[in-house]
Amino acid sequence: MAQEKAPEGKAPEGKAGAKPRRPRAETPKGFRDYFGAEVTERQDMLSAIAGVYRLHGFEPLETSAVETVEALGKFLPDVDRPNEGVFAWQEEDKDWLALRYDLTAPLARVAAQYRNDLPSPYRRYAMGPVWRNEKPGPGRFRQFYQCDADTVGAPSVAADAEICAMLAGALECVGIPRGDYVVKVNNRKVLNGVMEVAGVLDPADPDRFAAERGIVLRAIDKIDRLGPEGVRALLGAGRRDDSGDFTKGAGLSAEQAEVVMGFTTARRDTGAATVARLRELVGTSALGAEGVAELETIAALLDAQGYGPDRILLDPGVVRGLGYYTGPVFEAELTFEILDDKGQKRQFGSVAGGGRYDDLVKRFTGQAVPATGVSIGVDRLLAALRAKGRIGAVAEGPVVVTVMDRDRMADYFAMAADLRAAGIRAEVYLGNPKNFGNQLKYADKRAAPVAVIQGSDEAARGVVVLKDLILGARIAQSATLEEWKDRPAQVEVPRADLASAVRAMLAGGGL
Q1: Which EC number(s) does UniProt give (predicted)?
Q2: How far apart are CA 502 and CA 351, in angstroms?
Q3: What is the pLDDT of residue 77?
């Protein structure tokens, strides 16, 4: 019988004295660590977005990172690979548990579980990490952050209009100005009405033509990348790309494809003109007409609040891939240009999306519960802010109180306490104080703006020395006599004035 492999970190049985294997100091594949400034930037951005959501009456909600696979619903365990799509495991009682893959599925569970306690409609926002058991790639991780806002229990599309307005407000509050973004709105009912006219949706048998509709949806979603001819090919027999790979098409006739193509080019200069064109395209479809009326209502509600097409516009090109969307869908796109990995200019693209999903809570209750919401890709939005230069500067560290005399640690801690009481970040150097140069190197690595110095001589005279590390570094790079005379990088102040002097130094006003 072959010997079992020992767990990592333990010596195999029968090999007494063998050195245990050291664990590898590396993150698991597809995961990453976040340090100081990255964490602070994310917290600040999410705090600003939360402020917008709270202004609209939304309340925060935190759900467990773990849900039952049954509650998640989208992925089900199987014998060969029980954790398909999610990080899942089986409990001793045979229940399957998994890390949440988004923040919407847990909300559906909460809405059903606490339906007798929650107000209706229930407005909530949620922020936190989610996990996907997918193949990682450049910029694609298995753990990432999402920021959601949803309304459960409101059947009116006024809730969808509110979500769109909130999304625009969130983007502007974090530093994406008007002109650099647009929120695009469509309605899956309109698209289904066009499908009905095109002959790939049978209202009496919704499952019929499901495969063809899937291909049509994916084709429309790629129109910006493939152009009209590429989409037309996917609607027909199929398309062969530049590499020679062939993608099977939906098999629509030329007449059917023409109806769908008319939908992709239905956007006009005004919402009213777009609505009029969509009404022509859905023809006699009752579902399509309902969707057009909903878009018309959304446009009117947004216009009344001052959200014109420069911020939020009706765009039939928005599809949104998830199958549970049942009505309005929306997507926030950043319109400014960046350079890609090849040095080519391109638009930044989408940072948020969502829509109405009236059937998700029904899985738990058996009754239809209207719901709509949006999810912001936190990492994408942070990357956009860095591209715009809104964040990414070196974060200022704490003031460092250096240690000149080991037996006077109480004095140094008292200085740090005074600074903190004045609202100034401060810390006492806790390494080996023998080499003062190492203390200044530490302060530099911490990006400290000021170092506080007090030896026995300064203590006897009741003063401290403040070293302006930021100005000192600047002067060292390009010193001018005038700048040095105007504001020296090191000054002596009374101990009693420590906090006020540091505050003035941090404000850049000198002493």
Answers
A1: 6.1.1.21
A2: 40
A3: 41
The CATH code belonging to domain 29-155+358-395 is 3.30.930.10
Angle, vertex CA 455, rays to CA 453 and CA 456, nearest 5: 155
Report the candidate in 352, 361, 363, 319 with the shortest Cα–Cα distance to residue 189.
Answer: 319
Answer yes or no: CATH 3.40.50.800 is held by domain 399-506: yes
> Where exactly are the structural domains of the chain?
29-155+358-395, 399-506
Angle between helices 188-198 and 286-304 (to 10 degrees): 150
The tokens describing 184, both together, are 């695009």
At 483, list the tokens. 């700048």
- One fold for 29-155+358-395 and 399-506: no
Between 188-198 and 210-221, two packed helices, what is the crossing angle to 10 degrees?
120
Give the tokens for residue 34. 């976040």
Average pLDDT over residues 255-264: 87
Residues 164-186: tens digit of each pLDDT: 999 999 999 999 999 999 999 99
As given in the structure block, the two tokens for residue 400 are: 């460092």
Query: For 426, phi and psi rounded to 5 degrees?
Result: -155, 150
pTM of the model: 0.80
Over residues 118-167, the pLDDT tens digits come to 999 999 999 999 998 888 877 778 999 999 999 999 999 999 999 999 99
User: Is 100 strand, coil or helix?
Assistant: coil
Long-range contacts of 50-54 (CB under 8 A, 24+ apart): 50/125, 50/127, 51/173, 52/166, 52/169, 52/170, 52/173, 53/125, 53/149, 53/166, 53/170
DSSP 149-197: EEEES--STHHHHHHHHHHHHHHHHTT--TTSEEEEEEEHHHHHHHHHH
Handedness of CA 485, 486, 487, 492 (dihedral sign): positive
